[in-house]
Amino acid sequence: MDNCIFCKIVEGKIPCAKIYEDELVLAFLDISPICKGHALVIPREHHQSISSVPENIAGRITHVAGRIGIAFKRALDADGFNFHLSDGACAGQVVWHAHMHVVPRGPEDGFRWNWRQLKYDSDAERNDFVEKIKSKLKT
Ligand code: 5GP
Ligand code: ZN
User: pTM (2 decimals)?
Assistant: First the structure.
């Protein structure tokens, strides 16, 4: 894909700090880490959205991200890790080649997700969300 920075990384046209690669995916350090060690796992194939990534490749992305999380604990003394994936501009996606973030975490790392907790107005409203989502969910 022309003009895709992550395709250029896959093709070796621009450098990256690579930590893993196989026939389906590549993993390298994020250039501006939330915490040092923050990694990205990407499919070799160009897909703008994770929703179009074939199941075997999406599964490999998740598997490798989990293994990287374990490596963070073993090698970086991390206590835990976050997965993060932005799909769409409103969700914060800025690179249009699907990617999974894996962020090593510790109790004193100084980072907090800005996570709010809304409430449904009623059981009926919550059930309405369930029915609408189920009606369009195709796996
Ligand atoms: P998004 O918001 O799209 O989920 O995140 C894109 C991520 O890619 C950002 O965290 C950003 O720091 C990272 N990034 C952008 N350009 C490059 C690059 O050229 N090399 C590397 N290693 N990371 C990049
Ligand atoms: Zn791409």
Answer: 0.97
Q: Which residues sit opposite 20 in a β-bridge?
A: 27
Query: What's the 133 CA to ligand 1 centre distance in angstroms?
Result: 31
Q: How many domains would you assign to the chain?
A: 1
Residue 44, CA distances (Å) to 5, 15, 53 in order: 12, 15, 10
Within 10 Å of residue 85's Cβ, how many Cβ atoms?
16
CA nearest to 28, candidates 99, 113, 95, 111: 99
Q: Which residues are catalytic?
A: 99
- Residue ranges making up the domain that contains 101: 5-136
CATH number at residue 113: 3.30.428.10
Amino acid at 99: H
Over residues 132-137, the mean pLDDT reads 97
5-38 tens-digit pLDDT:
999 999 999 999 999 999 999 999 999 999 999 9
Q: Rounded to the nearest whole angstrom, what is the distance from the C-alpha of residue 7 to the centroid of ligand 2? A: 4
Mutate which of 93, 94, 100 for ligand 1 pocket (most atoms within 8 A of beta carbon): 94
CA atoms within 13 A on the CB side of 32: 0
